[in-house]
Amino acid sequence: MRARVTNMSRGARGFHTADGGTALLDPGASAVLDLAPHPAHDAWAAAGEVAVSLEGEAEPPAPRARPAARAAPSRGRDA
């Protein structure tokens, strides 16, 4: 599965890829990987040590902007 993986732990992590390789990510690093299913990936994600998000997931919709309030025409100081 294509996923963006971010290593949030204090040490480097090795992620198993679908092609049989391992991608090493340093702390704070992020990469898009063809991630292979592996129990360590699930455990790290459950512990909050890595973040995994599927590529192509829709971004949450942006908050709707409130319409600009129309100002009443100014009638000057004597109105």
* Main sheet summary: 3 strands, antiparallel
Span from first to last CA?
Answer: 68 Å
Classification by helices and strands: mainly beta
Mean pLDDT across every amino acid position = 82
What's the tally of helices?
Answer: 1
Strand arrangement in the largest pleated sheet: 4-1-5
What is the β-strand count? 5
Order of helices and strands: EEEEHE
Task: State the shape.
Answer: elongated
Beta-strand portion reads 25-35%
- Runs with pLDDT <50, length 5+? 58-62
Please give the share of residues in helix.
10-25%
Radius of gyration: 23 Å
Kindly summarize this structure in a few lines.
The protein is mainly beta.
Secondary structure topology:
Blueprint: E1 2-7, E2 13-16, E3 22-25, E4 30-34, H1 39-46, E5 50-54
Antiparallel strand pairs: 1-4, 1-5, 2-3
